[in-house]
Amino acid sequence: MYFDIAMPLTLLAVTLVSLFLNEKTESKLKNTMQERQLGVWDAVMLVGVMAVMVYLIIFVREITLILMALFLFAYSTLLFTFSYLFSKNRWYVGVIPPAVFILLFVFLRDTWVWSYILSNIYALAFAVLITLYLVSLFSWKTTGIFGILLTGMDIVLVFVTGTMIQAAKVTTGLRLPVMVSVPLIPPWPDSGIAMMSLGLGDFFFAGLLAVQTLKRYGKRFSIVTAVGMTISFFIFEVLLLNFLRIPFAGTVMIITGWAPLVIIKELTRRKPESSKIEPNQN
Prior knowledge:
The chain is globular. The protein is mainly alpha-helical and 282 residues long. It is built from eleven helices and two strands; from the N terminus they run ααααααααββααα.
């Protein structure tokens, strides 16, 4: 029976880091975002745009260079934003991290140092930064709608059309830090180093669910849901390694550990009015 603890623990670590850092960064980022929040239609459009992008990556080969430029611009903007905000608005400090990132990508992207070390380090950093940057745009309602739509889209694009798998191969072929890859622990005997990969979108999804749970139910329960998502991911991964041996939708693995806990919490929170004991008027 094969199993892996490396990727589940990586997912848990990134989720908890996002959870704890959000309390320190949210106020500053809200000022930057001018207190804006996504509505229901915005959540629907966001998932729609993501689906269109996946198909463009597969069927429009000429978009690869544009895609690379967009990713590099987005990553550099993230690095600059956080560096600028937390260096007390010193722009000359803010430009250093994105400049270093671009230089490393340009000169080392075809080396093993980038492929196995730097790409993973940046992917982990971006997973946290993306979560911190975008989570304030979501409310509890839009998080629920976005989660359902994103999971549904992931199911279709992974299991029905397979385009998500093809898109992942194209983007990783560009050497962009869009996935986190870690060796299986414990390693498989007599099989060399086997790797497990998870996309930044899945890390963002877990972080978004955990932070929104924190805002609604408090820190303790949000940590419980983070652990629940990790356990669910671990169970699915065991099934994949031993029986299914197919690409799987990471959003399903994550939301399966989160949704039941939240539903139970919500049901116990909303007790029927008839169950309340009225005080004796006599």
